[in-house]
Automatic annotation (TrEMBL):
Response regulatory domain residues: 1-115
Name recorded for this polypeptide: DNA-binding response regulator
Organism: Dulcicalothrix desertica PCC 7102
TM ranges: none
Entry-linked Pfam families: GerE, Response_reg
PANTHER family, alphabetized: TWO-COMPONENT RESPONSE REGULATOR
Length: 200
């Protein structure tokens, strides 16, 4: 099954798949509801899905499929390549993550890999994951505070914004400086912006 809300992409994927003697597209869906209907009726060996289908997110659809059929093989095909998109798709249970810029041979390889129970991450996405893994890992609270520091907020202002004590903010700032391996707030902001951890 191919599920994508962009007709050109959906038809293109279907065309690539149909050229292979060992592959058949049993259905095409333009939104999450159609995908669910086809999936429940046909139970395809592999479901190639866009991460953000119309009417319902692709992640929610993946979770629904796996709730009913825990052996479902889901291959995400999308041009959304932010860390959050990739992690959410994989955490939802997808077996593979294919970027829509991938060549036809890569698409076919991904489908075959997922069909055989293996995982597949396209080189484009794998490169991004490696880049993110090199970045310092900050907690959600530390990221919030670092973003507020980047926005020019002082400790007492951050404390008021987050409804915590100034002492708590100072504790987190110390942890942030330690994790980023810098000596002061200015260096922390510059490092965070350069690494893409926060926006400016």
């Amino acid at each position: 099954m191919v599920a994508c809300d962009y007709p050109m992409v959906r038809l293109g994927l279907a065309s690539i798949i149909e050229r292979e003697s060992d592959m058949t597209v049993i259905g095409q869906a333009s939104n999450a509801w159609e995908a669910k209907e086809i999936f429940c009726q046909q139970q395809p060996d592999v479901s190639v899905m866009n991460l953000r289908l119309l009417k319902l997110s692709g992640v929610a659809t993946i979770q629904t499929f796996l709730t009913k059929f825990d052996s479902a093989n889901i291959l995400i095909s999308t041009n959304y390549d932010s860390k959050e998109d990739i992690y959410s798709g994989i955490e939802a249970g997808a077996k593979g993550y294919l970027h829509e810029d991938s060549e036809p041979e890569a698409i076919k390889s991904a489908i075959r890999a997922v069909a055989s129970g293996k995982s597949y991450i396209s080189p484009i996405v794998a490169t991004k994951l490696k880049e993110w893994m090199k970045k310092p890992r900050l907690s959600t609270r530390e990221l919030e505070i670092l973003q507020l520091i980047t926005n020019g907020k002082r400790n007492h202002e951050i404390a008021t914004t987050l409804y915590v004590t100034e002492g708590t903010v100072k504790f987190h700032v110390t942890k942030i400086l330690d994790k980023l391996e810098v000596n002061d707030r200015t260096q922390a902001v510059l490092t965070a912006i350069k690494s893409g951890i926060v926006s400016f």
